[in-house]
Amino acid sequence: MPMRQSILKVLAYFDLFDYPVTIEEILFFLDKEASLTDLNAELQLLTKEGLIFPDGAFYGLRNDPELTARRIRGNRHADDLLKIAARISRQLYRFPYVRGVGISGSLSKHFADEQADIDYFIITRRNRLWIARTLMHLFKKMNYLRNRQNWYCMNYYVDEEALEIKEKNIFTATEMITLLPASGNGGLVRFFDANDWTSHYFPHYRHRKKEAEGPVPSSFLKTVLEKLLDNRWGDRLDDLLQRWTSLRWQKKEERGDRNKKGNRMSLQNEKHFSRPNPANFQEKILSRYAQRLNELEVKWSAYESL
After folding, report:
1. Could you tell me the sign of the dihedral formed by the alpha carbons of 152, 155, 159, 165, in that order?
2. Fewer Cβ atoms within 10 A, N terminus or C terminus of the chain?
3. Short-list 102, 162, 85, CA closest to 129
4. Which of 271, 296, 19 is nearest to 160 (CA)?
5. Distance from the first to the final alpha carbon of the chain
């Protein structure tokens, strides 16, 4: 039964995203250590009992072949976008005060539909987040002219003062264990180490890859600006940009602005981080996950009592 509950949690979470998973992925996301042999045996029993449904290399809670076909299409598209994301990550790391770049969102889980964005997680130097963010978003504006703005979705920033993520739950733990290191190994390694709490949800977190492939040389602009602004004027500029951005986003929220996917635009801005408001997506996923678990536990318990 303990193994079954762990399997249920994995399948239930990814079922929220219509995403069947492989046996290796189930093992990776289990909340306890297990062997592949034991897991395979339990999956065979659950399949025989009609509680889960295999389709080729994938397992899910629904007997729907279209989910597998959708995943395969999404994996293929992700292969193309990951090559683009790797190149852009190296560009982003060359901006002043950037200390680490990771690939996040659905792409970090090796999936991308036709409308997928490329999302980045950015780590900056302490007290220079807003200078770095402003420069990077000015660069993003230039890509609107080429209709490539969806390749530059830098939507989550933390500086070296706030590496530990405050929200500790299954959603943030999943995002953490799947975050792909892209550039800036020093900042990324410190970030992963600061969030070792994730291993409470996923023991494999401690074994995950922490470093990106190969070093990225610093740019001339990065070197010069960091030296020029390494003083009180840099402190004042960073504070000014943070206040200006907060006022701008406050107006967007008051207008009820929405992004191209129809979701409410909302950003939490503080001195040491800039991120999407958890209430807009994270809390909805957690609520749906709890509800789905309850439904499935009733179904599985009813079967066990037969």
Report:
1. negative
2. C
3. 162
4. 271
5. 15
